[in-house]
Specification:
mainly alpha, 114 residues, 9% strand
Length: 114
Amino acid sequence: MLGKVRKKLISLEPRPINKAERLVCPICERLIPESQKDAHHLVPKSKGGKTTEYLHRICHKQIHALFTESELAQQFNTAEILKSHPEMDKFITWVKSKPDNFYERTRKSARIKN
């Protein structure tokens, strides 16, 4: 007999992915290799968010380099809205030309640093 907590943990475990069920990044629309898969809270956990989406690690890092948690919670809480921002659009155009498993270190924008 399994307890409630264990049942919940088992239900949250990722199930094996068939080749036909490959994940596509909602930001750059490229296939996400298992090694580059990051879960992104659409509304940051610190702001009460619970739902997540899988993104490429580089796309996820770029989002957090450009936007504060407050901005993500209030304005940029869907993939479509994120993609419409000019800086993200510039990034997406650049990263689409890279292989699916491409990763490069991302720096915080000067606006976020200050």
